[in-house]
């Protein structure tokens, strides 16, 4: 099937304050914009008695231009429900366009001081690769890659080169990543319905060294020397507040159910247990955002456990088992 022709449409709008639910790279346009887009894409179907049909590109992508400073960014559409002649942008887009909050209109007014944003309909190539660079040291790619992929999938239609993504971590912290490189080459890519490879690389050698130091320090601090588990021997360990203690089980009886237990939990909701069979398709350490098995309910009689049947499909091709104990607050042993 032939690719649809490029959609030629643009409009100029005054900015209004966005609703809190507007996230990622999404915009809200007025209903009249949808009507204009539909009229442009109307076609005649010979099998529908010459009635007009409308086929909007999927997904709809736009290039936004700040008329005050020339900044540009690509965006996807949330809905067509803003007041006429106005446009709502997510916080990410406002930051990318360097918009001063004072330039947001509180109501529809004819005021030259209100910032105007030009919106162009523009089709983007499907992205195949993105390289993200953390803006601070200490990011462990094993922890962040799966979280980032899910964040992009849930919140973004496009990625624009040289913009900064803010991603909330599993403990409520916020981390920032620079969109440093994309493929195919250009200023932006579409990330919907595409197999996107995500790489995380340090900004420079100094940051890479500091990140490695922090990862090693955290691992040494949180994990006892015997973090290599043996099914015949109990292990005592400790985990710092709002962090993880990671363990590794290399050998077990693959014909019997495997039960992993943490005991002597003093507060019912203080610790969580996450387990992931490690294989060629699953390399990330277990975290509350990405794991295969877990017990994150209240502890019963000071104990939490996960039991895995030998016939469980997730155990196929398992090279080893990664186990993580997560602390929700004060340090525990």
UniProtKB/TrEMBL annotation:
One of its GO terms (molecular function) is polyubiquitin modification-dependent protein binding. InterPro entries: DUF7590, Ufd1-like, Ufd1-like_Nn, UFD1_N1, UFD1_N2. Residues 22-104, 126-202 form the Ubiquitin fusion degradation protein UFD1 N-terminal subdomain domain. GO terms for biological process: ERAD pathway; ubiquitin-dependent protein catabolic process. Signal peptide: none annotated. Keywords: Ubl conjugation pathway. Residues 225-327 form the DUF7590 domain. GO terms for cellular component: VCP-NPL4-UFD1 AAA ATPase complex. It comes from the Eukaryota. Belongs to the UFD1 family. This is Uncharacterized protein.
